Model the fold of this input.
Amino acid sequence: MRVAVAGTFGPLHDGHRELFRAALREGDDGVLVALTGDAFANRTRDRAVPSFEDRKAAVEDAVRDLDRWGRDVEIRRLEDEHGIAADDPALDALVVSPETAPELAAINEQRRARGLDPLEGIVVPYVIADDGDRISSTRIARGEIDDHGRVR
Done:
């Protein structure tokens, strides 16, 4: 199965690592990481986002550290909300968080309209910080927690 995972991934945290781990575990035909480009990432956030190149390097390092299966991993720049997942006929599944899981229906509707098979959804639970709330890049950027969910 060729599996995709998409996001801004900046700053990178343990929740993202769980998404990557799931994609790597299931992606025996390869893994596609759709990484938001700078314009898209900044258009959808009210906080500073590390540059695409910095985020790409962090994703490459994380994937390399997590890949116990020797998967073929490709990183592509994502410039709009559903772009790659809705367009790529080679994809079989999309790894999502509970927050982004509802988007799968819209993506699959777009895929069907293009004559493509729908994607299977692989929902990965949130990773919870020490304070009981979920880990997020926004919380890290605010200085509330570190990338492992430890309260600062």
